[in-house]
Batch of 2 targets.
Target 1
Amino acid sequence: MSSTPTNAGTGKRNQSRRRFLLELGRSTTGVTLLSLGIGLYSQQSASMPTRAIRPPGALDESEFAAACIRCGLCVRACPFDTLDLARLGDGVTTGTPYFTARDIPCEMCDDIPCVAACPSGALSPELEDIDKARMGLAVLLDQENCLNFQGLRCDVCYSVCPAINEAITLEHIPNTRTGKHAKFIPTVHADACTGCGKCEYACVLEEAAIKVLPLRLAKGELGHHYRWGWEEKENAGSSLVTPDGEHRYNLPSGKRYDFAGEGLLESGE
Amino acid sequence: MKHSPFPGYEAIRRKGWLAAHKWLLLRRFSQLSIMALFLVGPLLGVWIVTGNLSSSLTLETLPLTDPYLILQSLAAGHIPQGTALVGGLIVVLFYFVVGGRVFCSWVCPVNLLTDLAFWLRERLGLRSASSLPRYTRYLLLLATLVIAFASGGIAWELVNPVSMFHRGIIFGTGLAWLILLAVFFYDLLVSRRGWCGHLCPVGAFYSLLGTHSLLRVRADARASCDDCMDCYLVCPEQQVLRPALKSADNSPVINSPNCTNCGRCIDVCSLDVFHFGVRFDHSNSSRPVTNQTASPSSGV
């Protein structure tokens, strides 16, 4: 306000332009900083904790972040209180639905009420058969503590599986500890496991030996060029690469192999 | 006009306490009963409204969805399926008629918090010299859409105090109270009407929605204004009053999309300058009405 009367108009104009630019600069800086923070935070929060499982029909995590409008209608629709809406600090993107199998697993309702309740398609309406849900994949992680792996007949994960004999089967292997029994190994099959988490929930150990993992963690993926030789052979009728020769053992020197069950032996034995 | 001890003093003296708080009370009733409708489900098992302000289902038939969320979802690259689009359309039409920022003053739970901060700020006589310009909210609105587009997710919802507060009350808060505390103290100590009046992109979105809304506060009886300034002191968006109230060339309709239709100016005006009406300025027919409302004897 120190302008002389002659240039008072220009001075005032300059001053108001100056103030406008200053304000614009301040607000733009503030908004940019805040946006940067939110953007980085959103990248961080894109990684789900492995214990958290999305409801049936959930889109891939990257699409889910764009589709889920965080209303909680799926949580309300769940008749078993399985689903929870993530709170700030839970580690799961705030306001999105998830469940923890060890607390309450998915009961796999036939009418999939959570999917029916979803207003945005984040839980895809294309999932009409709950058996086709792929919430995750059960993996028997801890063979050292799993009772069946010790030769005991716990079988609980197998017994509670809603897709028993399809998603989990018991495979026999010899029990070398006793030398005369079989071990019944719970074996998960990805083509039938929905990731409902009932096996993890029911595991009798203090900490479950079998756990539902996100598919990205649980599953490997073949190289796209890779082919199983025996399948190709069956399809083609004969070996595609080298003709099958007579099989020869290539044992280390001084070893022989006993087919009666003794296994690898020193030549002299 | 002598200076009154507090805004609305003169109105209470002339109209009585109840009439001088009519719209404020109705507004609080609206805010609390909307909250109650959402809460009787989880608390008492009576499911009238399910979900939250982001998206809800009333009586298992009426879907309502926040159109701002749909917009962010679209920006992030997802086209909503299911009832969200219908629900969003209903909400858009509703606010198109009653005024977008009616959401802010009649529905949003954060308004209770920021009104409390404002009240406390006035009571304690706190002043601050600086605040961000009011258009910052539009920059932030734009930024939330840019972040959604860039990150491929509805990133604003990670920090949005509005949905976090409402969701928190219904589904459990977690650490969301920290963000709400930040909003409260920002409004109390840093900036007058800082959150709702300057920053909130949700309010900014709803203001755009109500740019041409039908329901407006009108200052038809502006001729009887005695410059007591009470309306300015209570208005959360003071800048919207002057064009309608003080410039004779302008229409007496408060046309700014940032008027929240809270009606507090109607309450505190002892001379009944303001009333709710429609946006159309039919000067010929409005004049007689003006004279009626201007007479101090007529009730509200």
Note: Chain A touches chain B through 46 residues (CB under 8 Å).
Target 2
Amino acid sequence: MHKIFSATFIAPNIKRFTIEAPKIAQKRKAGQFVIIRINEFGERIPLTIADSDSEKGTIDIIVQGIGSTTKELNSLETGDTIADVVGPLGKASHIQNFGTAVSIGGGVGTAIAYPTAVALKNAGNHTISIIGGRTKEFVILEEEMKKVCDEVYVTTDDGSYGKHGFVTDQLKELIRTRKIDFVLAIGPIPMMKAVADVTREKGIPTVVSLNPIMVDGTGMCGGCRATVDNKTVFVCVDGPEFDAHKVDFKTLMTRNQSYLLEEKISLEEHECNLNKLQQHSVLTN
Amino acid sequence: MAEKISNKERMKIQRQSMPEQDPLIRRNNFSEVNLGFTEELAKMEALRCIQCPKPTCIDGCPVGVKINEFVALVADGDFLGAASKMKEDNLLPAICGRVCPQEEQCEVKCVVGKKNEPVAIGRLERFVADYERETVGIRVPNLKPKTGKKVAIVGSGPAGLSCAGDLIQMGHDVTVFEALHELGGVLIYGIPEFRLPKSIVKAEIESLSKLGVEFQTNAVIGLTDTIDELLLNGYDAVFIAVGAGLPYFLNISGENLNGVYSSNEFLTRVNLMKAYRFPEFDTPVFNCKDKNVAVFGGGNTAMDTVRISKRLGAKNAYIVYRRSDVEMPARAEEIHHAKEEGIEFILLSNPVEFIGNEKGWLTGVKIQKMELGEPDASGRRRPIPISGSEYILPIDMAVISIGNGSNPIIQKTTPDLQYNKWGNILVDEATMKTSKQGVFAGGDIVTGGATVILAMGAGRKAAAAINEYLNNSKSAILN
């Protein structure tokens, strides 16, 4: 059992957790993830480690409530527990001094980009961060990024905060004005694909972190396979980070929709249970 | 006392068949297919054993169970005595009685089998283990005095569990590390409930806990701790028994379409994550109801997979295998059960391409017919494609069940171990010693995908060698 030391919403539907996991806190490197299972009925889901504190023995994860498992997770509070946390899984990010490195986070993807931005800065890069959100409230970790990055740019789709437009607009502007040596892009698949298209033309090395459906997270099931450079890879052990210019984003997107119908059924069941619980607590209070 | 009957009379008794669920009922449920012998059936079957002076059956058992002795005790009606005798050599008999390929091991060597059908040793083993568990509970043997030595076992599958069982009895402290959230490895995620009920696996693991074996789940050795860290952190020896956990794919076009699975994924979703009880359990699996399902391969895993798909409501469930039924590696009983449950076998057929629709979902597979040529390196006749024989089989789900390679996590984090070109760890076959001091390995990570009992045999061999290594290193320190 892993105790939740803190649980705070940092954007609508996006919650930051600090969880007891001493061993993982000591060992994890930027880019690695954990698999968690909330309770005996739960799914195993992969979540990138956003931060850690090896002295306190905690790791941070940032969760967007979309499906039934992530919504259930986001209903947990400080003091609650999570049955299983396993990791650190996957390969660590490849970090070196590239020169000028841009890390791009779209929506909750910023949580995944953050630890790698920290590592890029520590390796001596001039580190630029672009944070994208649908609206102002979906811009997360701006303060944290400002603390570690040399420059931080914010874009919103509706112009409610920062620059009006997409992260790729900001990226194109940076590329026009200076030499960019490395790009990391993490966010929704269409965003990562758009970034890859921009940098491919310019020949800028670009890495994306893939988030396919996983079960075990240790290479055993092959469910997370993706096509990279026309070859099948297992994201959990070969990744999660890959050369953005070689990823087959279309297959990734299709495979991520394998359980759309089941996700809907599960969500309905989950919400029905939550309602029952709420009714029950109204009655007993 | 054993009834005084002559060998001639013994030979006249027919092999007792085991009661089982009706195929038409069981193909709609996940309860165990075989129901086990009654006391009467067990005694009758045990009487068939002619108690050879040199029991060749024992040579066929990878862990050397004293088969003649335990069978004699069953014939006497001393079922608990038989259980104790069994457990001198095998601490997990309820599991082995269910999943060992007895027809290739002990039973093929049975002298009775030369004229009649062999004694049903596997069914008797199962009966004895179940009898003990259901009457007095699993009894545990006495331990030798503590040695103060600590052994880390990586993996809680059959190799790891059998090694742990022996080492704890020898007086060593044992910790078993498991990557998943549940113990048992392939016994839990791979073999389905209807063939090996999980409550039985849990009970046999519980008996190891009672002996003092410690278990840590959610520990991926190589990542959570490396082998070197285990050795640095107080373990005197390490046994690597991580299995063959990296599924092979066919490497044909369309393999990443939605609806194409590895057996490992399909089985893990259903068995470990209980997707057959979705949405009560959160993990989904392909909805097989009224669909056409093809499983590619001819081993036990393929049989488990296809029989699950039938239980999940598949309209047509096919085994597609590139050789003929003679070459099929699955246990005879599993093939028989699959056929009884309505599984269709498409033999001498090889998939060459998966076909999908515009949304990325599987709709069919192009199959090429094969014929058998000369025997290949495995001794089985090599399948040769017949050109122009291709046709399309419409299917909604495909499961690839052609075996497993070795998982790369230990290899990447323990470079000073020696591996073969397939990533299997190289060991001294007599001792299971690796090239690294204090590190032993056994089971599928050494042999490639094999059987539960071979892995258990390797675990026991390693336990003996680890015991010797620890005793010698003790005297080395004192000197």
Note: The first strand of chain A starts at residue 2 and ends at 11.
